[in-house]
Amino acid sequence: AEAPGASLDVCGSIGRRFKESYPKTVFHGRLDDLDPYYGAAQAVVVPLRVGSGLEIKLVEAMAYGKACVVSSRGLAALPPGCAGAVMPGEDAATFARAVVRALTDDALRRRVGQNALACVREHFNPQKAHGELIERLRLGMVRR
Q1: pLDDT 10s digit of each residue in the chain, 144 long?
Q2: Rounded CA gap, 44 and 41, in Å?
Q3: Distance between CA 129 and CA 120 in Å, rounded?
Q4: Can you say how many angstroms the Cα of residue 12 is from the centroid of all Cα atoms in its chain?
Q5: What is the maximum span of the chain, computed from C-alpha positions, in angstroms?
Q6: Cβ atoms of residues 18 and 27 within 8 Å
Q7: Total number of domains constituting the chain
């Protein structure tokens, strides 16, 4: 009730696990184009509980300049210096409070979204992602 106009769009195969419906929640399933959903979202929730390595879903949402509320698992996937690019929520209560803040505090949401975009541009640009491989290919150092 703290964000009465809020609704939740759930995109991806996770929706198959939910058999009942929830108020103001729409399960869309797998989608080929997420642009309209990211474009319409005020914030993105990334409640990762398990996983390893880079969390592409989180980086993708950040690349849209969205304020992302993340669990500690999502936070651990980010490089040092990007903590201000997301809103952490360790347990259900702090996660819910962070979501409400993301939806109700426009200045905070904009600032976190801008930090998210800056983090992606600095740490996940093509040169950072592929630079070493490209250099090895250029030098003929990749084994076949």
Answers
A1: 688 889 999 998 877 777 778 889 889 989 999 999 999 999 999 887 766 556 788 999 999 999 999 988 777 778 888 879 999 998 999 999 999 999 999 999 999 999 999 999 999 887 777 777 777 787 776 565
A2: 7
A3: 11
A4: 13
A5: 60
A6: yes
A7: 1
Task: Give me the pLDDT at residue 107, please.
Answer: 98
Residue 33 is assigned to a structural domain of this protein:
no
Give the domain extent around 76.
Answer: 44-139
**Residues facing 10 on adjacent strands:** 27
User: Do the domain assignments include residue 14?
Assistant: no
CB 28, CB 37: distance < 8 Å: yes
Q: What is the pTM assigned to this prediction?
A: 0.81
d(CA 55, CA 72): 12
3 state SS of 68: strand
Around Cβ 84, how many Cβ atoms within 10 Å? 13
User: What size, in residues, is the chain?
Assistant: 144
What single-letter amino acid sits at 142?
V
Residue 6 burial by CB count (10 A; 0-12/13-18/19+): exposed, middle or buried?
A: middle
- Looking at the chain, the number of H-run helices and the number of E-run strands are 6, 5
